[in-house]
C-alpha cells in the first residue's frame, strides 16, 4: 500500500523544473549552487492549544511556561499552519464584551504570523459554543447579530487571518437537540441554505480575498447533498472542510480514498480540518456522539503509540496522494485536549511520540528538500525535483528566493 500511495504522491504532487540561471544577461554555467526548501505550499498544521494562548499573553510561570515553550518549539519544527479558536461564547461571553478575548487572540495570531504560519479562524457560525445571551433575542435579531459578529471578526483580523471556517457542522445544525441555542433556532427557521448563504455573503463582503470553508464531521451523503445544494444556489464556497476524528479507530486507506473521491467530484479544494488518531485504548464502537464518552483517565500507551505512528503515516500519505487536498490539520497537537483523549503528537509533558517523529520524517524529510549542492551545466541550467513551495538558491553572495508550482516545468532565475 505504501508503494501505491508513494507513486500517487510522486505523480500528483512532485514537480520537475529546469532552472536557468542568468547574471547580467549571461548564462551562469558550470557553477556550484546551494538549493534548499523554505516552506511547503501544502498546509500542514494543528490546533492552537490553550497553553499556547496563555503563554503568549504572559499568563504562565514555572513548569507550565516551560511546557508551552517546548510545545511551540516542536510545533514550528513541523507545521506551517495553525487553527485558532473563535468560539463565540468564549469570544463574547457577555454581549458586546469581546475586547479582552480579541486582544488575547490577536497576540497569538501575530506570534504565529511572525513565525511563518498561515492562520485559520475556527468557526464563525456554530450551534455549539454559541453564547447563551442569544436566546434573549428573536430570530431576526439573532441573525443580524451573527452577521455583524462575522464581519467584525473578519474585519478585525483581515491580513492576519484570511482563511475561515465560516459555518461548522451545518448538517446537524437545524436538528441539534442536546440543548437550546440561538444558531439552531435560526437554522431551523431559515433552512440550511439560507443561513449558509447569509454567513458566506457576510464573510465575503468583509474580506473578498479570504478563503471561506464549509466544515463538517458528517461524511455521509447528507453532506454531499448539502454542498450540491449550496453550489446550485450560487453560494461561493472556496473549500470543503472534512473532520476525521478517529477516536474509535483508523478509517484505513480504502475508506479514506473513497471519501476523497466522493468529495473531489465538486472540483473544490479539500481541507482535512480536524484529524484525530489516539495512542491509547479506542473509544467503544457503540458511541454515536463522541462527546458522550466521558472518562476520568485516558492514557497513552506504548502499544497505542506504535499503532498511532503507523496510522499517521498511512493517513497523511493517503491525503497527500490526492491533488485536491490543500490543507491537513491535526487535532489535538498535545494530549489532554478534547475529550481528554491521548490524541496528541506530543504527550502531556510535551515529549514527542513516535507519531510526531514519523510525521516529521515525512513532512521535513521525505517530502522536503534539505540544503543540496548542485552544479549548473553549460547552458546555466539545473534540474530540480521537489514538492511545490518556497525555495532559496544561494550562489556566492547571492540569495534568491523562488517558488515551485504544479504545472511549472521551467523557470529563469536572475541573480
TrEMBL record:
Q: Which domain of life is it from?
A: Bacteria
Pfam families named in the record: Glyco_hydro_10
**EC number(s) on file:** 3.2.1.8
Domain GH10: residue ranges: 64-362
* Enzyme class at the top of the EC tree: hydrolase
Q: Does the keyword Signal apply?
A: yes
Catalytic activity of the protein: Endohydrolysis of (1->4)-beta-D-xylosidic linkages in xylans
What keywords tag this UniProt record? Carbohydrate metabolism, Glycosidase, Hydrolase, Polysaccharide degradation, Signal, Xylan degradation
Q: Where does the record locate the signal sequence feature?
A: none
Q: Which family does it belong to?
A: Belongs to the glycosyl hydrolase 10 (cellulase F) family.
Q: What is this protein called?
A: Beta-xylanase
Amino acid at each position: 500500500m505504501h508503494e501505491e500511495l508513494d507513486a500517487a504522491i510522486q505523480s500528483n504532487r512532485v514537480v520537475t523544473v529546469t532552472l536557468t540561471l542568468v547574471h547580467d544577461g549571461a548564462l551562469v554555467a558550470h557553477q556550484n549552487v546551494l538549493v534548499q526548501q523554505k516552506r511547503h505550499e501544502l498546509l500542514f498544521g494543528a490546533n492552537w492549544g490553550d497553553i499556547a494562548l496563555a503563554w503568549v499573553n504572559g499568563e504562565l510561570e514555572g513548569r507550565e511556561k516551560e511546557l508551552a515553550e517546548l510545545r511551540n518549539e516542536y510545533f514550528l519544527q513541523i507545521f506551517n499552519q495553525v487553527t485558532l479558536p473563535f468560539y463565540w461564547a468564549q469570544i463574547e461571553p457577555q454581549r458586546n464584551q469581546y475586547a479582552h478575548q480579541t486582544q488575547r487572540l490577536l497576540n497569538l495570531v501575530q506570534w504565529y504570523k511572525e513565525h511563518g504560519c498561515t492562520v485559520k479562524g475556527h468557526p464563525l457560525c456554530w450551534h455549539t459554543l454559541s453564547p447563551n445571551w442569544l436566546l434573549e433575542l428573536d430570530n431576526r435579531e439573532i441573525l443580524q447579530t451573527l452577521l455583524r459578529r462575522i464581519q467584525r471578526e473578519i474585519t478585525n483580523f483581515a491580513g492576519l487571518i484570511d482563511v475561515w471556517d465560516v459555518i461548522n457542522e451545518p448538517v446537524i445544525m437545524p436538528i441539534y437537540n442536546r440543548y437550546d441555542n440561538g444558531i439552531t433556532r435560526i437554522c431551523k427557521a431559515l433552512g440550511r441554505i439560507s443561513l449558509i448563504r447569509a454567513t458566506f455573503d457576510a464573510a465575503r463582503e468583509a474580506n473578498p480575498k479570504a478563503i471561506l470553508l464549509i466544515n463538517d464531521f458528517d461524511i455521509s451523503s447528507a453532506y454531499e447533498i448539502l454542498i450540491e445544494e449550496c453550489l446550485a444556489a450560487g453560494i461561493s464556497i472556496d473549500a470543503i472542510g472534512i473532520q476525521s476524528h478517529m477516536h474509535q479507530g483508523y478509517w484505513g486507506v480504502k475508506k479514506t480514498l473513497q471519501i476523497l473521491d466522493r468529495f473531489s467530484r465538486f472540483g473544490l479544494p479539500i481541507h482535512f480540518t480536524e484529524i484525530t488518531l489516539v495512542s491509547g485504548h479506542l473509544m467503544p464502537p457503540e458511541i454515536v456522539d463522541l462527546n458522550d464518552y466521558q472518562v476520568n483517565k485516558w492514557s497513552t500507551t506504548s502499544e497505542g503509540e506504535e499503532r498511532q505512528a503507523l496510522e499517521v503515516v498511512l493517513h497523511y500519505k493517503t491525503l497527500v496522494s490526492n491533488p485536491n487536498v490543500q490543507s491537513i490539520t491535526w487535532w489535538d497537537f498535545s494530549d489532554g485536549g478534547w475529550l481528554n483523549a491521548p490524541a496528541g503528537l506530543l504527550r502531556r509533558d510535551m515529549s514527542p511520540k513516535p507519531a510526531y517523529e514519523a510525521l516529521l520524517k515525512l513532512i521535513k524529510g521525505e517530502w522536503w528538500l534539505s540544503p543540496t549542492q548542485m552544479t549548473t551545466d553549460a547552458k546555466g541550467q539545473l534540474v530540480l525535483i521537489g514538492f511545490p513551495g518556497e525555495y532559496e538558491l544561494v550562489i556566492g553572495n547571492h540569495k534568491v528566493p523562488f517558488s515551485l508550482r504544479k504545472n511549472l516545468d521551467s523557470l529563469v532565475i536572475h541573480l
